[in-house]
């Protein structure tokens, strides 16, 4: 059983995530095997800018028909390759009631109180969304229409809107099964039917679910079933039923962890992580569920992953070396504040400022200012 250290693990992940900029086309980036999260408008473009050698703009994914945006893993919005959306949808069918309830996450108690099983609630909502979303419409309009035709237990009274809405997590999880996607680049959030409107399937596809776990282990490994389950949004016991074959056991930090057997050589001898990148909040590299591996210091973890308002992360020399934030001055100038955890060599600071230029261009700003703190 190979024994690896933290430096090898981080160097391996940096390479697996395409952060060496050795892939020219977005379709070839392995991060799209799991999907590229797009929680804020520009985050996906900034993630691309960190990985592609060529220019990137906000429209790089928005206007590319080869990609589709949808609520998928954990109900979060992700860009996926359009020709793989059926496989992604199949992977998101819960294996059983226990799995379905676990995926309800923060709204589990409300679903339990609805008087129906999580599976029934999920697919009842999916059928309603399929019936309602037959054209481009705002999330608010879709929620209002769906709420009228679902059981009362799946909705709640919203004080802020002074209206009744479908439970947020139920809506997000059900949308893809109802053949509904998100309109990329639209504000406010806007829904539309998926092209071709595939027939809804309710039967689990263990093979498709297993592929998600395997892709997680490739990008974020070596890892445990618990960490893979946290990414999927379910329990470790459920993920063990999705556990891939042809995995290798690895000894890391005194415990046994796993990754695809084909990746062992790359883990044992990864390329030097001699890159400096500005990663946006929710960048795929930051989605590893073993945060203590990425950032061992707990105080620094709290700086990178906040309850609200995550900053971006400065990646330098194989480490998360700091955080960064921006403030726009109209559409003319983007002001960066980069906070390094420790003093950085001048070459790394210069490289970070060059990365800031790429981020500014990706967000449509012609001018920028970088301040260090």
UniProtKB/TrEMBL annotation:
Annotated Pfam families: AlkZ-like
Name the UniProt record assigns to this protein: Winged helix DNA-binding domain-containing protein
The organism's place on the tree of life at top rank: Bacteria
């Amino acid at each position: 059983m190979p024994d690896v250290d933290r430096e090898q693990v981080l160097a391996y992940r940096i390479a697996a995530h395409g952060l060496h900029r050795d892939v020219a086309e977005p379709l070839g980036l392995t991060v799209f095997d799991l999907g590229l999260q797009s929680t804020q408008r520009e985050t996906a473009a900034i993630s691309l800018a960190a990985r592609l050698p060529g220019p990137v703009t906000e429209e790089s994914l928005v206007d590319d028909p080869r990609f589709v945006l949808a609520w998928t893993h954990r109900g979060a919005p992700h860009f996926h390759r359009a020709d793989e959306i059926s496989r992604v949808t199949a992977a998101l069918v819960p294996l059983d009631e226990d799995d379905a309830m676990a995926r309800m996450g923060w709204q589990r108690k409300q679903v339990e109180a609805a008087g129906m099983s999580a599976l029934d609630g999920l697919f009842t909502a999916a059928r309603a969304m399929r019936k309602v979303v037959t054209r481009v419409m705002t999330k608010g309009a879709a929620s209002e229409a769906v709420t009228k035709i679902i059981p009362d237990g799946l909705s709640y009274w919203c004080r802020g809107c002074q209206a009744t809405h479908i439970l947020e997590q139920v809506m997000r999880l059900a949308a893809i099964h109802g053949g509904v996607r998100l309109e990329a680049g639209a504000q406010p959030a806007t829904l539309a039917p998926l092209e071709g409107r595939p027939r809804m399937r309710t039967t689990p596809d263990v093979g498709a679910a297993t592929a998600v776990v395997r892709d997680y282990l490739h990008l974020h490994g070596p890892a445990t079933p618990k960490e893979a389950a946290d990414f999927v949004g379910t329990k470790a016991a459920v993920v063990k039923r999705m556990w891939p074959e042809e995995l290798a056991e690895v000894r890391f930090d005194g415990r046994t962890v796993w990754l695809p057997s084909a990746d062992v050589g790359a883990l044992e001898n990864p390329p030097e992580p001699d890159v400096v990148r500005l990663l946006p909040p929710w960048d795929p590299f930051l989605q590893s569920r073993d945060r203590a591996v990425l950032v061992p210091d707990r105080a620094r973890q709290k700086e990178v992953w906040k309850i609200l308002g995550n900053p971006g992360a400065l990646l330098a020399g194989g480490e998360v070396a700091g955080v960064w934030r921006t403030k726009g001055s109209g559409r003319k100038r983007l002001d960066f504040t980069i906070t390094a955890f420790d003093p950085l060599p001048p070459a790394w600071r210069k490289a970070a400022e060059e990365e800031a230029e790429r981020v500014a261009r990706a967000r449509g700003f012609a001018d920028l200012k970088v301040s260090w703190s």
